Automatic annotation (TrEMBL):
Gene Ontology BP annotations: carbohydrate metabolic process; tricarboxylic acid cycle
Organism: Teichococcus deserti
Pathways involved: Carbohydrate metabolism; tricarboxylic acid cycle; isocitrate from oxaloacetate: step 1/2
Pfam families per record: Citrate_synt
Keyword Transferase on entry: yes
Family classification: Belongs to the citrate synthase family.
Keywords for this protein: Transferase, Tricarboxylic acid cycle
Keyword Transferase included in the entry's annotation: yes
Name of the protein in question: Citrate synthase
Length: 374
């Protein structure tokens, strides 16, 4: 490395950009903790609301705190007629991630505290976004299918209400539990691309709605959250388990990316995959359709044998959401409905000890030169 050629960490691989007390990603043991608790333990023993409280407050809630948190969230779910009107004006074929990005931006126009970046206001705005995002996702999805929106039901849990506003009905408890588990697993993951985007936006002094709008834009990409949709498209393209291995060999021939595999941090397995796979298997049992999980098992075994690459969370989440009855374009918006918790926790942390995020680039363009004669 010479003076004129600094070490470039392309993609910021391995760069530790700041401290954080929200979650710890430990690739050496394939583990992940939120505020010190193993994500698997949270998924098996807690509700998504308890985990949201934990991420925002550092501790799990007691019964009264949980009751108050649930009541506040349930009371904020309605969206205005103005936002419903904006959603109805979206093009019929708008991608749901573009729809929710635009809806969150519009919520920023309506929020009485948008520009207030104090911690208290950011917490109140985070709660409003947590509550309203499912309503906006569902309204946009239903509008794209020519269906009227369903009013949120404050008596339902966060997970139950998501099914209610999207599908108009709440499924069996084991389906709701599998969905709740997926929300917990998707809630937070250190300095991933969308969270780092949200923190970068926050570092300029910009507000929560701006940070979340940017986070959603980053999450849409197929290398990040968009992979859960891509996984289901891939499984649908393969069609049946007997074709899985041959299909994969074709991808190897073209050195193509196989969606739902690989991870920037975990190289020996994603800590969230076993739990999500267990619940995806349960969904296959409930629905009585083993095709997708059988295909997944064959693909994962072949990827490990031939490429030494493990699946990431999006791999089991894709078929799980399909088996729960959600259309594929809703999969990444569901990730948004969950990750708003992690994004907000990081925004609050960034605001508390802020320094503008502003790295350098090493210039490789034309040498300095004179302007041509004019
Ligand atoms: N399919 C095929 N090959 C892969 C895959 C994959 N999914 N992932 C990595 N590889 C290969 C790379 O091409 C590279 O090969 P090379 O050394 O011959 O060039 C090698 O494995 C090492 O990959 P990395 O460079 O370590 O991957 P990186 O950290 O840059 O990227 C990423 C990580 C973006 C997640 C990548 O694995 C990928 O594109 N996966 C598919 C998309 C995906 O599933 N994203 C979801 C991420 S998790 C989440 O958001 C919840």
């Amino acid at each position: 490395m010479s003076e004129t050629e600094p070490e470039i960490r392309k993609g910021l691989v391995g760069v530790v950009a700041d401290v954080s007390a929200v979650s710890k990603v430990m690739p050496e043991t394939n583990s992940l903790t939120y505020r010190g608790y193993a994500v698997q333990d949270l998924a098996e023993n807690c509700s998504f609301e308890e985990v949201a409280y934990l991420l925002w407050n550092g501790e799990l809630p007691d019964a009264d705190q949980l009751k108050a948190f649930r009541a506040e969230e349930a009371g904020e779910r309605a969206i205005t007629p103005a936002l419903h009107g904006v959603i109805r004006a979206f093009p019929q074929d708008a991608h749901p991630m573009d729809a929710i990005r635009t809806a969150v931006s519009f919520l920023g126009l309506e929020d009485p505290e948008t520009a207030d970046v104090s911690e208290a206001a950011t917490r109140r705005k985070a709660m409003r976004l947590l509550a309203k995002i499912p309503t906006a996702i569902a309204a946009a999805h239903r509008a794209s299918k020519g269906l009227a929106p369903v009013e949120p039901d404050p008596k339902l849990t966060f997970a139950e209400n998501f099914f209610h506003v999207v599908l108009g009905k709440v499924p069996a408890p084991e389906v709701v539990k599998a969905f709740d588990v997926s929300l917990i697993l998707y809630a937070e993951h250190g300095f991933n691309a969308s969270t780092f985007t949200a923190r970068t936006i926050t570092s300029t002094g910009a507000d929560l709605h701006g940070a979340v709008t940017g986070g959603i834009a980053a999450l849409k990409g197929p290398l990040h959250g968009g992979a859960n949709e891509a996984v289901m498209h891939m499984l649908a393209e393969i069609g049946e388990p007997s074709k899985a291995v041959a299909w994969l060999e074709g991808k190897f021939d073209h050195k193509a990316l196989v969606m739902g595999f690989g991870h920037r941090v975990y190289k020996n397995g994603d800590s969230r995959v076993p739990t999500m796979t267990k619940y995806a298997e349960k969904m296959a049992e409930v629905v009585g359709d083993r095709r997708w999980m059988e295909m997944s098992r064959l693909l994962a075994a072949e990827m490990l044998t031939k490429k030494k690459i493990h699946p990431n969370l999006d791999f089991p989440a894709g078929p799980a959401y399909h088996l729960m009855g959600f259309d594929i374009p809703l999969f990444t918006p569901i990730f948004v409905a969950s990750r708003i918790t992690g994004w907000a926790a990081h925004v609050i942390e960034q605001q508390a000890d802020n320094r503008l995020i502003r790295p350098l680039s090493h210039y490789t363009g034309a040498a300095q030169r004179s302007m041509p004669a004019r």
